[in-house]
Amino acid sequence: MTMFDDIAKVLISEEDLQTRIKALAKEMNQVYSDVEPPLLVCILKGAFIFLADLTRHLTFRHEVEFMEVSSYGKSTKSSGVVRILLDLETNIEGRHVVIVEDIVDSGRTLNYIVRNFSTRNPASLRIATLLNKPDRREMEVPTDFVGFEVPDEFVLGYGLDYAEQYRNLPYIGILKPEVYTKD
Ligand code: PRP
Q: Distance from the CA of 69 to the center of ligand 1, in angstroms?
């Protein structure tokens, strides 16, 4: 048995991911070709694979940084409280900033980060997210570069986890229900 046996279906293939990421990079190359080098902020952990592929298709000079925020957790979902576990090392005042996320779901995480970053006075602030799940949105998030819209299903792979595993799947898949109901 391998982790692949736990996957019910492939939602977005490896090839489709790579094609779309190249197109997103092209959009970003147009926006950032003539401005001061932006800072790409990868939100850990889920966005690390997307960032790694995206950054290699960008033709403008840029820097990358990592930020980790705590999930509000299943039990406290309604509180909307997000905690910063790892903050930026760079002062973003006057900088062009791109937040790189794997998925916007309820929107709580990014809504918090956008509000937090706005107080630091960046020159501009945009969001690049690989996946968008609009059916689940509870809080507004101004997404600028979106890879794919996905249905309200439990998606994983390509950085997204189930119980911290499966992040290394090369595609976006859907887990077999028996995997998460057996606990
Ligand atoms: C996921 C994802 C986003 C957030 C999206 O992170 O990476 O940061 O949830 O959900 P929201 O729109 O409902 O806030 P998670 O907390 O699972 O942590 P991880 O990236 O470390 O897996």
A: 9
The mean per-residue pLDDT over the stretch 34-40 comes to: 98
Nearest Cα neighbor of 131 from 5, 11, 8 is 11
State the pLDDT confidence band at 103, using cuts at 50, 70 and 90. Answer: very high
Ligand 1 interacting residues, C-beta cut-off 6 A: 43-46, 71, 101-109, 161
> Which residue numbers are catalytic?
105
List beta partners, residue 125. 97
Contact yes or no for 135/154 (Cβ under 8 A): no
User: Which residue's CA lies nearest to atom 21 of ligand 1?
Assistant: 45
Domains (range + CATH), the chain: 16-152 (3.40.50.2020)
Count Cβ neighbours within 10 Å for each residue of 35-59 and write b for 16 or more, e otherwise. eeebbbbbbeebbebbbebbeeebe
pLDDT digits (tens, 9 = 90+) for 110-164: 999 999 999 999 999 999 999 999 999 999 999 999 999 999 999 999 999 999 9
Residue nearest to atom 7 of ligand 1 (CA): 46
